[in-house]
Design brief:
By secondary structure, the protein is α+β, with helices and mostly antiparallel strands. It is about 40% helix and about 25% strand. The strands form 3 sheets. Strands 5-6-7-2-13-12 form a 6-stranded mixed sheet, sandwiched between helices. Strands 8-15-14-11-9-10 form a 6-stranded mixed sheet, sandwiched between helices.
Length: about 425
């Protein structure tokens, strides 16, 4: 990747349309998306209705702020794939007036509609207009945005909608470029152990994702936050433990084998230097839970926290980035990338958590009522993708899957209720 990155930087001087090369995780996601689409969506609900023209103006302001929101991906020969600028590209806005279908139905439509990575922009929006309120869905190719980056873009969109002025952000280089000096001296730990069995991908044609959502009460949210603190764990640990227990109650397969969960970890604060830039600035860590149904809940939640803690250090981020950089430097094929996902990550659950109050709730003239997601299109046939976001004092869960466990979120809520009452 280093030589390819240098080549791209040199080419930029010759080709003003070139923005930058894709980073390691961005490149991996691009390959995985060509195997099975893996884009994602976020959903914001506000308490006011604006004309579509106001939304289009706000979307244009987004593109003027973020360099990658006017970009497409170009791959030529053996060169590393790169983002190229298309200054005339506009984020498309699909408007649904007097929306009757739930936003879950509309976001499922977005999840089931892949992106053309060769056409800018790699983001699109859907607007559901109701009486006294609006819901906006932002969908993005996963090479151009990660979950937290998507939340920052959503906040910028709402700021622009409120009449705020968005300053243009400088282009930020990919993660391995920011960590190049540390990677030079870092040692890479032993190779990750593969899963006992590879995960099966969903059908290439005809598979349709289902999407569900559930909001905990403010009272239960407070109880989960407080009890997690007392039990020396995190809300993420509690939700992971709840998803595992709920799944065991609903699925015989989960009762008969360990459950593998991957948690994307945002590294913006750990590494520094990227601020709210677009791009992918995460690592991914797999935890394995082999407890039986009904195992002590808070012990399970503490062990999730303990398993994830080492991955949140700068040293670990540098090691993981260096290992991925070495893999991507081998110029892997789509099949190589798919094999890595299927054999090494091989997760049953993708648990993506935006954290507590990731964006502002109050804007000039309106308020954000709810933020949902990330809602991710996964490549596997039977994994359960759970998005977590606590906004306005309410913890909200989303569930996306191509072979969904019916009632998973209701069961998660029940498990959390039992845990805080015990």
């Amino acid at each position: 990747m280093r030589n390819q990155q240098t080549d791209s930087e040199n080419n930029l001087k010759q080709d003003p349309a070139l923005v930058r090369a894709l980073g390691g995780t961005e490149h991996l996601f691009w390959l995985l998306d060509r195997n099975r689409s893996i884009h994602f969506a976020l959903v914001a609900q506000i308490d006011r209705v604006f004309e579509p023209s106001a939304w289009r103006a706000a979307l244009l302001a987004l593109q003027q702020r973020h360099p990658l929101l006017v970009a497409r991906i170009v791959a030529e020969g053996e060169a590393a794939p790169a983002f190229y600028r298309d200054p005339d590209a506009r984020i498309p806005l699909r408007v649904v007036e007097n929306a009757r279908a739930s936003w879950e139905v509309e976001v499922a439509r977005e999840v089931n509609t892949p992106f053309d990575w060769s056409t800018a922009p790699l983001v699109r929006a859907t607007l559901l207009q109701g009486v006294g309120g609006s819901t906006v869905i932002l969908a993005a190719h996963h090479s151009v945005l990660d979950g937290m980056g998507g939340a920052y873009v959503m906040q910028d969109l709402l700021c622009a909608l409120a009449g705020g002025s968005l300053m243009s952000l400088p282009l930020v280089q990919p993660l391995e470029s920011l960590l190049r000096a540390q990677m030079t001296t870092a040692t890479v730990s032993g190779a990750m152990a593969p899963a006992s069995e590879p995960k099966r991908f969903r059908a290439a044609i005809g598979a349709r994702a289902e999407v569900a959502a559930l909001a905990l009460s403010a009272q239960l949210t407070r109880a989960v936050v407080e009890r997690s603190r007392i039990e020396r764990t995190t809300v993420h640990g509690a939700v992971a433990a709840a998803v595992h227990e709920a799944g065991r109650r609903l699925s015989r397969a989960w009762r008969e084998r360990p459950v593998r969960t991957v948690s994307p970890i945002d590294v913006r604060r750990t590494v520094g230097g990227m601020g709210q830039a677009n791009g992918v600035y995460i690592t991914q860590t797999v935890t394995v839970d082999d407890r039986p149904r009904g195992a002590p809940f808070w012990q399970a939640a503490r062990e999730v926290k303990a398993s994830l803690a080492p991955a949140q250090t700068l040293a670990s981020v540098v090691q993981e980035t260096k290992a991925l950089d070495a893999f991507m430097s081998s110029n892997p094929s789509i099949e190589d990338a798919a094999g890595f996902l299927s054999h090494m990550l091989a997760y049953d659950v993708l648990l993506s958590n935006l954290g507590r109050e990731p964006v502002a709730s109050t804007y000039e003239g309106f308020a954000l009522k709810a933020l949902w997601g990330p809602i991710v299109s996964s490549g596997f046939a039977d994994d359960q993708v759970v998005g977590v976001c606590t906004q306005g004092g309410v913890l909200r869960l989303t569930h996306a899957s191509y072979t969904a466990m019916p009632g998973l979120l209701d069961e998660v809520s029940a498990v959390l209720g039992e845990a805080v009452a015990s």
